[in-house]
Structures are given as C-alpha cells and as structure tokens.
Design a protein that fits this description.
The protein has 3 helices and no strands. With 92 residues, it is mainly α. The mean pLDDT is 88.
Length: 92
Amino acid sequence: MPATESEDPDGIERHHAAAGQAALMLVESLMLALVERDLVPAGALVEAVETVIETKRRLAADGHEPATAARAAAMLTTIANSLAAAGPATKG
C-alpha cells in the first residue's frame, strides 16, 4: 500500500516546495499588477526586493542556511528584474 503524503517525508517536502512556489508567484503577480495599474512605481518595488536580497545575502554570509539563502536571493533577483522590465522606475 503506497504511503500518503503525510506519511512520506518526500511528499511533505514537495508540499512545502509547492506552497513556496505558489506564494512567490502570487507576490510577483500582485507586484506586477500594482505597477501595471500605476498604483506603485516599479522602482519602489525593485528597491524593496533589493533590500530583501541584501538581507538574504547577509544572512548567508553569517552562516544562516547559506545554500537556501543564496537560492532565495537568486529567485528574488529574477523578480526584481521582472519588475524593472514592467515599467519605468519613475514617471516623467
């Protein structure tokens, strides 16, 4: 009889990975919607994401889950680039 996800550690890990992916995609989508509707300048959101990237890099340098922090920083960099491409940093 196959194990259920709750009994299978790999299933639990996949569940957490899926939840993380869904959350990350949702936040990126909401940020892009804010930019597209001219509610928040892209530059302000890029700055916010870059602050988180810097925090993750500092945590990695301090030995706090360095591999995970480096992966998170890479994912956040992709989001910052997406936001930067979505609209001008400032309105002219």
